[in-house]
Design brief:
The complex is a heterodimer of chains A (about 260) and B (about 190). In chain A, about 35% of the residues lie in helices and about 20% in strands. Chain A is an alpha+beta fold and about 260 residues long. Chain B contains ten helices and no strands. In chain B, α5 (about 55-65) runs antiparallel to α7. At the A-B interface, β1, β3, β5, β8 and α4 of A face α1, α2, α4, α8 and α9 of B. Chain A: It catalyses: 4 Fe(II)-[cytochrome c] + O2 + 8 H(+)(in) = 4 Fe(III)-[cytochrome c] + 2 H2O + 4 H(+)(out). Chain A: One of its GO terms (cellular component) is catalytic complex. Chain A: It holds the Pfam family COX2.
């Protein structure tokens, strides 16, 4: 009952880390970066609503008091120095209050504070992602490489999310500093996960780096964010931070290196 | 590789298994662990090497190797007639690069090792020559540094291992493959 009421009030109740039909707000933050983005959004919205209310008030007041029947000849003020100064200074102060936290967040987001513990390479293809873990190999050929395709709608099992589920998820450790190197093998793609506050263009011939630290375990969904061809909608990012990252990666890596 | 991979990665159904059921899946890799410990052992060796070098010692070593660097490098290359020597390796370029390697080795020392589960969580450190989002040159430079190191100190020199680790961590395997091919054909565009 309460859930229905809340649902009616807010149109939706956002699930943790995946998009929801008619969702208006953000997905829950899982990195300090996303938390910062949400906070900035709320900060700016404070000013936004203040300005909105103020402008609407002026607008309605003007329409009301200077109605052509009620007041056919409006007052003829040509110049007022005080008001001119006020409406120049005041907006610039507001802009400053918006700009300072915005730049602070922007620059802190691409700052690499500590040495990352692992590097994962995400390589965009038409239309799938290839992931490479190469921190543990002892030759050029032994990297742990796998492709990550979206599960087509017909193959979905009950409870899986349409257009969001992939066959091979990228597994990362939680609460660890990660370096993700994003590049592409054909056209422009963009590796994006909303809950992690990450959106990074994949450009062929260029390596873009993002550093993130996922704060909690879970499954995070995202989609390609650059129009990259007919199957653009079917290229999906799915990240799984886990505690047992080490054992999982070595389980996958060792049979390979042993066989090679 | 994709097919070999597919039976190793757990399916979605396996992913949703309860922890208890997962235990017996997890017991399997125990017998394989020896292989893995050998792998980590080699990387640990590399790490201890790094720790032993105090900055002063590193500096001494650097000064030793830097001063005569261009000459022996070229002589070894010329005598061995290895496939790498075909690139345009001019003396000024080599001298210019050697200053870069000093800076490089020092930054490599301050590498923090994090928690150690079964595998060692360790990768190329942040490099302040490449502070921006664009890391293309970072990867390329590490690749060149490794091959210059090998050219100077000989194949399999333990000092060069960390450069190999760095460039493998940073570069996509397609690029490495392409560059290796280019080196073999003598068409590699960088200063080796």
């Amino acid at each position: 009952m309460i859930v229905r009421l809340l649902e009616w009030l807010f149109l939706t109740i956002a699930p943790c880390d995946a998009a929801e039909p008619w969702q208006l707000g953000f997905q829950d933050a899982a990195t300090p970066m996303m938390q910062g983005i949400i906070d900035l959004h709320h900060d700016i919205f404070f000013f936004l609503i203040l300005i909105l209310v103020f402008v609407l008030r002026i607008l309605v007041r003007a329409l009301w008091h200077f109605h052509y029947k009620k007041n056919p000849i409006p007052q003829r003020i040509v110049h007022g120095t005080t008001i001119e100064i006020l409406w120049t200074i005041f907006p610039s102060i507001i802009l400053m209050f918006i700009a300072i936290p915005s730049f602070a967040l922007l620059y802190s987001m691409d700052e690499v504070v500590v040495d990352p513990a692992i590097t994962i390479k995400a390589i965009g293809h038409q239309w799938y992602w290839t992931y490479e873990y190469s921190d543990y190999n002892s030759s050029d050929e032994q990297s742990l490489i796998f492709d990550s395709y979206m599960i087509p709608e017909d193959d979905l099992e009950l409870g899986q999310l349409r257009l969001l589920e992939v066959d091979n998820r990228v597994v990362v450790p939680a609460k660890t500093h990660l370096r993700i190197i994003v590049t592409s093998a054909d056209v422009l793609h963009s590796w994006a996960v909303p809950s992690l506050g990450v959106k990074c263009d994949a450009v062929p011939g260029r390596l873009n780096q993002i550093s993130i630290s996922v704060q909690r375990e879970g499954v995070y969904y995202g989609q390609c964010s650059e129009i990259c061809g007919t199957n653009h909608a079917f290229i999906v990012v799915e990240a799984v931070p886990r505690k047992d990252y080490g054992s999982r990666v070595s389980n996958q890596l060792i049979p390979q290196t042993g066989g090679a | 590789m994709a097919e070999a991979q597919s039976d190793k990665t757990p399916s979605l159904a396996e992913d949703y298994l309860l922890e208890k059921e997962k235990q017996d899946v997890a017991t399997k890799p125990v017998e394989v662990k020896e292989v893995e410990s050998a792998v980590t052992a080699s990387s640990v060796e590399g790490a201890t090497d790094k720790v032993e070098e105090t900055p002063a010692a590193a500096a001494v070593e650097e000064s030793k190797e830097d001063a005569p660097a261009p000459a022996p490098e070229e002589s070894t290359e010329a005598s061995s007639a290895s496939p790498e020597d075909s690139t345009s390796d001019t003396a000024p370029a080599a001298a210019e690069e050697s200053s870069e390697t000093t800076e490089e080795e020092n930054s490599g020392d301050q590498e923090a090792s994090e928690e150690t589960p079964e595998i060692k969580l360790e990768t190329a450190p942040a490099d302040f020559r490449f502070p921006t989002t664009n890391q293309t040159r970072h990867c390329f430079t590490r690749y060149i540094e490794y091959h210059r190191c090998v050219a100077a100190k000989g194949e399999g020199a333990p000092e060069c291992d960390k450069f190999a680790k760095y460039y493998r961590a940073l570069c996509p395997s397609d690029w490495i493959e392409k560059w290796n091919e280019q080196r073999e054909n003598g068409t590699f565009p960088g200063p080796l």
